[in-house]
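Input (structure):
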């Protein structure tokens, strides 16, 4: 049977067939996935089906046939349900402290557009934003996606020698030469070479690197000294690849320095953007990726206490998860009270302090 409807149900004595514009296929893998999830997190099956229904839009009455292996679905719907179950299973793993990256938020989309422009045109770009707007997660994601080099600066990398050592560690490995120019040349030559690597992005999907680096992402660029600024400019120009500086808005003051090294870099910045704080829709997209099937009331509560900050949102999620998935609370459903209790564990915002 074929159907052009988004979701059309055919019912007989034993099965329900879900067609979404293609032939339905029997698949019992989801039944096993549900069984495995319920072994990790003992919950009422009706709660699980309700959560999957809210996340996918598939009627709960049809999903209830899954555990009995009486639901025939096509591959697209199967993947949709499987992704939800995978996210819920990952959420229950208390040792996992990383949220899945969401490439659909406004900030992620803007970051992607700028990264691709820098890769294509091989120029220097600057991306700023307040803490918690997703800069670091986007840096790591785009570095993998664009076959790039990710660097994260800190107070230990403010000197020229420390900066060179940091970049060496991420590229050619340790070098015992004491001549800065020789060490920089080795880094440039490395960046020009072809590299092959396979792995997984932070959103769980796979990646494959084949070819030379196309871009350098320098996270926490605020820590760069004028010498560090000039070092990165020299390397990116020598390797003929793009350079994306990422940091807090205060980095703009540093770029107003009258030192020649800084002025040379500033004149070469072809694009600059400041990422805005996440909106309610952005927070919902991240929640749907990491805790699918939440009710609107719960999402609004997460947004309220997140202070429009992804980092705080992740703290809230992990605190709530620890409340729900401990042995004594297994099977308990997430409520507004849990989120409020999790918010109470966080430091007070400046406007909340007495």
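Output (sequence):
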């Amino acid at each position: 049977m074929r159907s052009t409807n988004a979701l059309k149900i055919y019912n007989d004595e034993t099965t329900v067939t879900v067609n979404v514009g293609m032939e339905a296929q029997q698949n019992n893998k989801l039944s096993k996935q549900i069984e495995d999830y319920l072994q990790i997190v003992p919950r009422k099956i009706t709660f699980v089906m309700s959560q999957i229904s809210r996340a996918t839009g598939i009627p709960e009455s049809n999903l209830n046939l899954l555990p009995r292996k009486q639901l025939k679905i096509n591959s697209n719907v199967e993947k949709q349900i499987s992704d939800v179950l995978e996210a819920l299973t990952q959420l229950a793993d208390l040792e996992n402290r990383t949220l899945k990256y969401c490439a659909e938020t406004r900030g992620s989309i803007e970051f992607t557009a700028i990264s691709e422009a820098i890769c294509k045109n091989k120029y220097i770009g600057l991306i700023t934003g307040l803490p918690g707007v997703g800069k670091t997660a986007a840096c790591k994601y785009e570095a993998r996606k664009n076959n790039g080099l990710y660097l994260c600066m800190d107070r230990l990398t403010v000197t020229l020698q420390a900066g060179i050592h940091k970049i060496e560690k991420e590229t050619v490995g340790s070098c015992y030469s004491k001549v800065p120019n020789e060490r920089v040349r080795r880094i440039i030559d490395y960046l020009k070479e072809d590299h092959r690597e396979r792995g997984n992005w932070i959103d769980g999907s796979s990646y494959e690197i084949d070819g030379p680096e196309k871009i350098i992402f320098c996270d926490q660029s605020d820590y760069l000294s004028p010498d560090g600024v000039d070092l990165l400019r020299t390397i990116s120009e020598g390797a003929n690849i793009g350079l994306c500086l990422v940091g807090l808005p205060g980095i703009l003051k540093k770029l107003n320095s009258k030192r020649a090294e800084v002025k040379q870099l500033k004149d070469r910045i072809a694009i600059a953007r400041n990422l805005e704080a996440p909106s309610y829709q952005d927070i919902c997209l991240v929640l749907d990726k990491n805790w699918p099937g939440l009710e609107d009331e719960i999402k609004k509560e997460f947004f309220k206490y997140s202070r429009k900050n992804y980092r705080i949102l992740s703290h809230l999620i992990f605190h709530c998860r620890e409340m729900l998935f401990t042995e004594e609370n297994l099977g308990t459903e997430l409520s507004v009270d849990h989120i409020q209790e999790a918010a109470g564990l966080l430091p007070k915002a400046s406007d909340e302090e007495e």
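Notes: Confidence is low (pLDDT under 50) at residues 1-26. The longest helix spans residues 75-91.
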